[in-house]
Amino acid sequence: MKLILVxxxxxLGLAGQVLTVAPGYARNFLLPTGxxxxxxxxxxxxxxxxxxxxxTRAKAEKDQAQDLKGRLAEVRLVFHRKAGxxxxxxxxxxxxxxxxxxxxxxxDLERRRLRLGEPFKALGDYEVPVRLHPEVTAxxxxxxxxxxxxxxxxxxx
Length: 157
Description:
3-stranded antiparallel sheet, Ribosomal Protein L9, domain 1, alpha+beta, Ribosomal Protein L9, domain 2, 3-stranded mixed sheet, 2 domains
């Protein structure tokens, strides 16, 4: 089924694109949520009129994502967690923890943008890809340290 995307859809395309998708996906998700319109002649003419608006908005969003990528490159998140002798955590560091730590530092990112395969269950340094835009992916540096180091750091200060 041929559709015109009205909104950006993850893993599908950007607003203003004309795509062919499975009929069930169109009927059950894209059309009811208002993310797409059928590719009729009237809708294609409307798309031609709005194409410049879509392109301007897409460029602005990409520039904003590039700026955010530069700011995220300077960020390092540090988590102090209880761990066993072999470095295994009693619990895990999840995407929710990362999202909350980023919000505390002034970054308003949805946690679904964090491409965290599995929660961190061991001490160490990690890098998490953050999908800011379909064409822009940033890398976030994370350190998971034992809780007793946090107490030592606080005592030293």
